[in-house]
Amino acid sequence: MSQTQFFTSMMLLLGLVGLTSNRKHLVSALLCLEAMMLALFMALTQISQTTNNTTTHTQPLILLTISACEAGVGLALLVASSRTHTLSHLKALNLLKC
């Protein structure tokens, strides 16, 4: 296992552990999701560099676009929830209430 593969897998694992353990604020959950998406981006970039297939070169860009859209939606939800509930705690947000 190379050093880049080790760091990528550790980033993904730490993002997953952070997402499962730090469930207090919405901002920390969004940051853990972004760390996981960055680890996936690094893994896809490494795979596309090692293979000489031209179809794998666009996959990291597609993932980066999807993660940017996910970050935008997450921040929009954060702003909307802070305006309505004045809190960013995940326990205060109940999806079943309107």
Automatic annotation (TrEMBL):
EC number(s) recorded for this UniProt protein: 7.1.1.2
Membrane topology (UniProt): Multi-pass membrane protein
Principal localisation: mitochondrion
Transmembrane portions of the chain: 29-49, 61-81
Pfam families registered for this protein in UniProt: Oxidored_q2 (PF00420)
Protein keywords: Electron transport, Membrane, Mitochondrion, Mitochondrion inner membrane, NAD, Respiratory chain, Signal, Translocase, Transmembrane, Transmembrane helix, Transport, Ubiquinone
GO cellular-component term (any): NADH dehydrogenase complex
Enzyme class: translocase
Signal peptide: 1-22
Sequence similarity: Belongs to the complex I subunit 4L family.
Protein name in UniProt: NADH-ubiquinone oxidoreductase chain 4L
Species this chain originates from: Tarentola mauritanica
